[in-house]
Design a protein that fits this description.
The chain is of the alpha+beta class and 257 residues long. It has five helices and 14 strands. The chain is globular and about 100 Å long. The chain starts with a helix and ends in a 6-residue tail after the last strand.
Length: 257
């Protein structure tokens, strides 16, 4: 009888030991490591939003992957923001799913400083351009309105939304900064395309005349071409007679840089 009790106790202890050994180690996740924040609106009237998050996890635990996919982010007092304001971004998650996934977070909130809002100090002026009349073929004067916002001129005929205007201003400002960097001897960084399939795309040019003279749509077409590849790329303006006429998407593997 005593021998049987010892045998049963030994089996119980072994089972407890094996259970402890097989228990999954706690995985640490960093929910704020790669979040992308977009600022919208104008200076003193802005707000921010988290547009994407890429949490680094190389395992194949379906519960952890489900938890990561469910992440959301909340931002308090998210209106009427101006450059220099600091907002707190908090992680929103399912606590039951977190416990089931056996994970911990390095932090559940972070701060973000607003810095890229533009001033809505727009002015409208009318300019006269000489254009060829499609019917008569004669050169005539055509009046066009131009909106100037934060020092950037935008033809009213483009019919851009408020968000498109803000994106275009940010783009023009980035080109100006890139030119300053080039003059100072600092080279631009290449952007990594997001395609998981290997691509070998060639450089390609896009002209604004093919996009109803909409500079933003032309730029976006060039950017999407590079972004949907697996290659390192950058988008550069195309000039003719010292005037921008479009954009070209170039790839590092085809470049001498």
């Amino acid at each position: 009888m005593k021998h049987n009790m010892k045998y049963i106790l030994l089996i119980f202890l072994c089972a407890m030991f094996m259970s402890g050994c097989s228990k999954q180690d706690i995985v640490e996740l960093k929910p704020f490591e790669n979040i992308k924040v977009k600022e919208t609106g104008w200076n003193k009237k802005g707000k921010v939003k988290v547009v994407s998050h890429e949490v680094h996890y190389t395992g194949n635990d379906q519960t952890i992957n489900k938890l990561i996919d469910s992440f959301q982010y909340s931002i308090k007092n998210n209106k009427g923001l101006k450059n220099g304001d600091v907002v707190t971004i908090k992680l929103v998650y399912d606590s039951d799913l977190k416990a089931l996934a056996n994970v911990r977070f390095d932090k559940t909130e972070c701060t973000y400083t607003v810095h890229g809002l533009h001033d809505d100090n727009r002015k409208v002026k009318t300019i006269t351009n000489k254009k060829k009349d499609p019917k008569s073929g004669e050169i005539v004067d055509v009046a066009e309105q131009v909106i100037t916002v934060d020092g950037v001129e935008i033809p009213a005929g483009w019919n851009l939304s408020e968000e498109e205007i803000q994106d275009y201003i940010s783009y023009v400002k980035s080109i100006e900064n890139d030119e300053d960097s080039t003059e100072s001897g600092v080279k631009d960084d290449w952007i990594q395309g997001e395609s998981e399939s290997k691509t070998h795309r060639k450089d390609s040019k896009y002209f604004t005349k093919d996009y109803n003279n909409n500079d933003v749509e032309c730029y976006q077409a060039a950017y999407v071409y590079g972004h949907t590849s697996s290659q390192l790329f950058k988008v550069m303006p195309v000039f003719k007679d010292e005037k921008s006429i479009g954009y070209k998407c170039i790839f590092k593997e085809n470049s001498n840089e």
